[in-house]
Amino acid sequence: MNDAVRMQGRPTLLQRKTGLTPYFGIAIHWGREKAAMTRDEIKLEIIKVFKDQFEIENPGLDEDLREIYEFDSIDAIELLREIEVLLQSELTRAEKKKAMDIRTINQILDYIAWLALRRAKTKGMSKKEKL
Asked: Which of 25, 58, 95, 130 has minimal Cβ neighbours within 10 Å of its Cβ?
């Protein structure tokens, strides 16, 4: 079944919390250019990371990565680094801590969307205002 069809009518955690559609564009930096990526494009990048970095091919979007693929804390640290590369932005300790409960690809996609939204909201704010 097509992922878009499977997700229809089923809001993501981010959508439930923010009311945003799960297919909004996320600003990702590639070199000097800034381009908005859709959720599907981000999903393809994350699936590619799983294939290239973790030798996990075609993981289901709702499969428990820890149970099915034995995805451990070292893998999680590597994944966070790949997310930093994707966003071209270092994650804060609090952002990394928030990732500790992630178990599925859909949760990873929600997490990346949350990070991008957070960065868009705090862009141009002073350090005091961000806290």
From this structure: 58
